[in-house]
Amino acid sequence: MPEAVFRLEEVSFRFPEDDRAVLNGISFEIRRGERVVLSGPSGCGKSTLLYLLNRLYPANCDGIVGGTVRLFGRLSEVWKPGEINRFVATVFQDPDAQFCMPTVEQELAFTLENLRVPREEMKRRIVEVLALTGLEELRGAVIQNLSGGQKQRVAAACALVMQPEVLLLDEPLAHLDPHTARELVRWLDGLQKKTGLTVVAVEHRLDLWDGFFDREIRLGPEGRLTGCGPFLPGPPMRFPERPAAIGEEASLRVEELSVSIRGQEILSKLSFQLNESEIAVIAGPNGSGKSSLAKALCGIYKKSGGRVNAASGIGYVPQSPEFLFLTASVREELAFSGIASGEEVDGLMERLRLEEIADAHPFSVSHGQKRRAAIGAMLADNRPVIVMDEPTSGQDAAALLELYELIDERRREGVSFLIITHDMEFAAAIADSVMLMKDGALTGKFRAADVWADPGLLAAHHLIPPKGANAHEPAFA
């Protein structure tokens, strides 16, 4: 049998400031060349477990580890700082957290310089990995000007250019459009078959991986191992039926909206209307301008032309929820506006499964919990129009269902939603209309069922038809 690259025996982990352990009694091994997915509800410790495998924890957080962690047969604690990074590369959940240099090429070169790769070898590797990840055109691009999905691909390229033996992926598809996600999975499949790379991924969007994984390690809500065996895909996510009931009054009008940054036009003359109680999904390829549109509607990006008319302001849940946080606890975030009553805040806390982290600092919780806290804060603000950028990222099935119910309840109260998402099942269930974007322009605003039934329209915007979703009308199958 291939050797074990990771072996954990009765491992527990606790942050020094916490009374409760994040992980409890975890035992498993992962052998060379395996493809393993770590699954479980949001906040159960999946990312923490991943960071034990690359020695980021406990070294970088003073965490308290119980049990035994062996990496390539050696006890974790005997590896020197940075030594394991020659064998184990990581793509983090938040790609911004791992960038050090301004441009894509400089970031790749910086990674190789740290490994003391000779200059000529460095040039060859950079060209190869840019081609493999489809980033050739972004070679000289400034990373902070890229979309969330493009940043995710750059982070993957930086990990793979190291030619590691193990690749750790923390929700690598979270910000990728469906087509790009599928392409990345196909490419990883070919790479793994060619090199024998060991792949360990934390993931919620398992449908996009098809049959990639050999094995699944499942964690429960208390950070305990609940299963370890062959990967068996579950049934498609199902949402309750809901009648569409769009109002006749406009809650948001956008006319000829344009945005330019440093002389480059990123949004070009967008015009559309959102009615009271309407839920519209914004979809399209990575880099098409979806997040830029959200920022322009909320005034974060200054208009270079056109008008945005909203009755009483627009609420905004950004793709990086940290940008919304202003207080020292999750509960204070939801109560910050002072508009929702204490009872309403308590109700949102319960429904968004935030009660157990009510007193935690918003920056200290998991990615999925941060996103739910940001959503809760904006729902508590009672804005008539709410823009959400990738609200489903990092959410398990129960959290998705509760989010769906909360959005539908607010819609029935007259609130309108613009939702940017790459989750086609969620989009098919929640959307009255779909706004398709490409290259900074609006292709059009369509009835949702018409989009799912048009293969050409889907392909042109890097989308795939939803699986088994019960939208208002039958989804394209």
Automatic annotation (TrEMBL):
CDD domains, alphabetized: ABC_cobalt_CbiO_domain1
Domain ABC transporter: 6-247, 252-464
Transmembrane stretches, start-end: none
One Gene Ontology MF term: ATP binding
InterPro entries the UniProt entry points to: AAA+_ATPase, ABC_transporter-like_ATP-bd, ABC_transporter-like_CS, ABC_transpr_CbiO/EcfA_su, ECF_ABC_transporter_ATP-bd, P-loop_NTPase
Compartment(s) where it occurs, according to its Swiss-Prot or TrEMBL record: Cell membrane
Domain of life of the native organism: Bacteria
Enzyme class: hydrolase
Protein keywords: ATP-binding, Cell membrane, Hydrolase, Membrane, Nucleotide-binding, Translocase, Transport
EC number: 3.6.3.-
Record family assignment: Belongs to the ABC transporter superfamily.
Stated name of the protein: Energy-coupling factor transport system ATP-binding protein
Annotated source species: Bhargavaea ullalensis
